[in-house]
Every structure is written in C-alpha cells, then in structure tokens.
Amino acid sequence: MDAPTFQDIRRIARDEILAGNSALTREIVDRDGTDANILVAAMAAVGDEVIGQLSIAAAGTYLDTARRVALDRLVFDRYGIVRKVSSPALGVVQFTTTAPSAASFSIPVGTLLSTADGRQFVTTTSVVYPIASSGPIEAQVRSVLAGISQQATADTITSIVSPISGAPSDIAVNNSDATAGADDEEQDEALRARARSFFVNAQRGTRSAIEYAARSVAGVRKAVAFETLDALGRPGGSVQVVITDAFTEALVNTSPTPPTYATQARALALNVSTALDSWRGFGIYVDVQTAIVTLQGVTLLLSFSAGVDTEAVALAARAITVAYVNNLNPGQAFSRSDLVDALRAVRGLIITGNEVYAPSGDVTPLPLEALRTSLTLVTVG
To answer: Where are the alpha helices (DSSP H) in the chain?
Structure first.
C-alpha cells in the first residue's frame, strides 16, 4: 500500500479536530488563515515529513528500492560487497630521443606526463634508458584521476611534465595505443545485479563464480569464462577468462589493422588475475584476455577408419575444434583449412579436406573481437 499523502493526513487531522470540538465547523477548519486551519496544516506537514523519512528508511532495507548510501550499507551488511570505485586508465608509453643518448639515465616511478587537453598520467614502473639508444623505451602508466573521461586515445600522451634527471633535452614521449580500464563508479543497478548473484556464486571455483569475481574488478564490464579440454573432451585443468572494459565496448577501433590492445590492457588483466586467486580452483591456471566475445558454432562432417570407436573419435575431433577456436587471438580469423590441419592429430579420422561443413567459409572478426566456442556449439553431421 502507498504511504498516505499530505492531503490524506490533513483530512484525517481535520476530521479528528472536528470530532473532538463540536464548536468548530468544517468551514472554519478549511478556511485559509484561521487558527484551526493553520493548526491542521502544521500537524499534516509534520506527519508528512515523518512518513517520508520512514518511507526512505523502509526503502533502504530492500535490494530493489535502496539507493546510494543505503544500498551500500545493505549490500555490505548482507553480502560483504562494496561498490566498485571509479578506476584509472592504464596504458603504455614510449620514450624516444632524436639522437642516441650520450649516457644512460633512469625514468623513475611517478614521472608525470600529460595529454594536450590536460589529462595527466604517471609512470608506474621505473625504466632505464640505455646509453647510445634512441628508443623507444616502454613504461607503464596510469591516469592521475579516475573515471571514463580519463581514457586516452592513441598518440595523445605527448608531454613530459616533471623533469627527468640526466635526460637529454630532445627526449619525447608518446602512446602508440589507447589506454584501457578506466571506468566511472559502479551505478546502483550494476551493484544490485552483483548482489543478487552473490549466493548463486558463493561456491567458488564454478564458471559463474569466476565470471562474477572478474566482473567485481573495477574497470571490468563483462567477463566470460571458458575451460580448456583434453583430447577426450574432458576438462584440461586451465581456464580462459575473456574480459571487456568500457574501452572495448565503446571505443573499439574497427580499422582492418589489428590493434595491440592486449599491450595496454595487461595491467587490467593482471588485476583480474590477482582477484581470481581466491576464486579459482586450487592448482587451476586462469588465463585472462581482453576482447569482445562472439560465439561461433561449428559443424563437422567426419570420415572414420574401420574398427575405431566413432563416438570417441568424434568427441576428440570436437575437443580439437574447441581448442582451435578458443586459442584464436582477438581479431584472428577462423580458417577452415587451419582447423582441418588441426584435426589431422585425431587418430581414427580419415582427412579429406572437407571436414568443416559450417561455417561455409572463413570467418574474420572485427579487431578486438574474439571468436569462442564450446562443446555444445560443435556438432558432428
């Protein structure tokens, strides 16, 4: 039931004051400016304020209606979950000189860099610029401020703000690739979604739990996990997690030249790998990659040698197919001929070159798009 409004409370107060004092009339109470009218309106205003505060407090006890601070308190008290804070942009810059350096010098941690529009970055690794080198010498950087607005496109971090001791005057800096990982503070709906899936993923080590843990890292928008398979289609003892951040979703470069996104995203991937240490199964290796996942179905037409267990051989062929597709790098094409070559390792198959029925041709994804599949998506015709 909805809470009573100011008019509801005012009507109740009027009826009560009329019932308690026969000398008063409804006309006197309803007439603006009378003492009775002011008294009833004041009581209604106080009641309306109290009910409003009670409504806010009650809303803060339910996951669907709690907001901001109340939601933070609720999910922490019930699940031990905290809202993801805004995350900085992570990247790699290259230092160069016009002429070979006359002496070696160090570029320390905390060296301040900047873009032309004022976004500042600091180096997070200390690197040595060797003697007689003109570069490029790479160093990892992160933005000074956090948030999606701190993302920097390629070739924009070009200014060295803080002095570098021993560096020649012609030293320059640039980022050949865009930064990654920057994101704004987690919004209420995203926090609610993580809280709702908490108990489902409380048993760690499952696929959904690993994906949940990866999504809990600041900067990660999506995460999809795949397990490797052995030649018999059984779990192979390692897991691949493909993560997507705001840059991957919104700023993907569709140029035909494959971008080296993994280079500047390795710091974000390392953060996810560290977070997964307490979620993965003990002894299970987790490989974290950055890409947009596109699921790819495959249909095989197989010929078998006489006397073999066709079901076992077909399962081995499907497992080889899963391994081939899931090892494709972001932007790398699915090649029918390459898959046929991979199938040659399956004993009991007669290879004719026509083993791949579908897709009917090679499949070329967009840059930063990774083709992935699973046993359920690989069928034998």
So the answer is: 6-20, 26-30, 35-59, 68-79, 188-196, 207-215, 246-250, 261-276, 310-326, 336-343
| Cα 70 from Cα 189, distance rounded (Å) | 13
Residue pLDDT, tens place only, 306-325: 999 999 999 999 999 999 99
Residue 154 pairs in a beta bridge with none
Strand partners for 173: 95
How far is Cα 201 from Cα 79, in angstroms, rounded to an integer? Answer: 11
Residue tagged 């977070």 (tokens): 275
Exposure pattern of 141-171 as b/e (b: 16+ CB <10 Å)?
bbbeebbbebbbeeebbeebeeebeebeeeb
Tokens 């791949």 belong to residue: 356
* pTM for the model: 0.64
Residue 233's CB is within 10 A of a number of other CB atoms, namely 18
Contact 330, 262 (CB under 8 A): yes
Domain annotation for the chain: domains and CATH numbers: 6-59 (no CATH), 88-174 (no CATH), 200-380 (3.30.70.1350)
Q: At what angle do helices 6-20 and 35-59 cross, to 10 degrees?
A: 130
DSSP secondary structure, 341-356, as one string: HHHTTSTTB---S--E
Can you tell me whether residue 95 is helix, strand or coil?
Answer: strand
What does the pLDDT average to over 139-166? Answer: 94
